[in-house]
Amino acid sequence: MRESSCEPEIRRRVARQRRVMNIGPSELVQMAYVAQQHYRVGKSLVEIADDIDMSRFKVARLLARARETGLVTIRVNAPGTLHADLARRLAAAYGLNRAIVANTTTDLSPAIRAELGRITANLLTEIVTESDVLGIASGRTLTAIVDQLDRLAPCDVVQLTGMAGDPNQTSSDLVRRICEISGGRPFPIYAPLVVSDPQAAEAFKRQASVQATFQRMSRVTKAVLAVGSWEPPESQLSDALSDDERAELLARGVRAEISATLLDERGQRVPALEGRTLAIDIEALRNIPEVIVVAGGAQKTEALRAALNTGVVTILATDSHMAQRLLDGAPRAR
């Protein structure tokens, strides 16, 4: 008699059930606890071992046994939501440490923010540790990250840019929300992103809380930034300026900004608004080990290309349409 296609799987399930039945209740509870702490909470073997006063080798054996008995099963779903090949090619073309490319069916910025927020929230959960100092700017895309962030290591969180745009999407609000999730210490800037003159900016910087935040910026190990586009317009900094000032800067070649540093189409700095912004400088960004930029949508193509050409970005999170456009116009040698 021919064996039906489902019989091997039935036998495997029965065998797993028998193995579980042969485990004592005490060991079963230990296995379940260790597996939950490792795979769901994200604790390391050493952290779990310290929590329950057990050697990390015993913790490793419990995890291995949990997989063998079927108490833990692992499934990989990456191909459906992430485009691994585009990510690899994009990282190589622009000299990035890493690129993460979301498969998207649309090219419109509002529609893809949630997906970029999801993949970047997952990235931060993976790479941020308690010893890190996390820097965060502002923007609608960065708000989407925090909307989908459900856990993070308890690290210090530093605001990298002053407040601009929607009051519920300012970098101060994002810092507060991240610290509520992680339990880390906030370092906010309760001041505008751009002010009328350098004297006003210096007055804000003399405030004790703002001064403490700017001092803490030198300790940032991972920064998360958006990119503003000036042509076509999609920039909180541009929106904060008068029509005349915006027109003057466009005439001088401004096409993008990262933090509050203005860039031309080649990624070269355009000296403007000097001393009037409260934000981390691009030269300070170069000293941060990991600078994560999150941007997507057709409107931001040239702005993102300019940001990548600065050489500041180490990790990029974007969508598949943007990735292909960036590759089509990538430098021949890097």
UniProtKB/TrEMBL annotation:
Give the molecular function GO annotations: carbohydrate binding; DNA binding
Protein origin, superkingdom: Bacteria
Keywords per UniProt? DNA-binding, Transcription, Transcription regulation
Stretches assigned to the Sugar-binding domain: 84-327
Q: Does the keyword Transcription apply?
A: yes
Q: Does the keyword DNA-binding apply?
A: yes
The UniProt similarity line reads: Belongs to the SorC transcriptional regulatory family.
Q: Which PANTHER family match?
A: TRANSCRIPTIONAL REGULATOR LSRR, TRANSCRIPTIONAL REGULATOR-RELATED
Any idea what this protein is called? DNA-binding transcriptional regulator
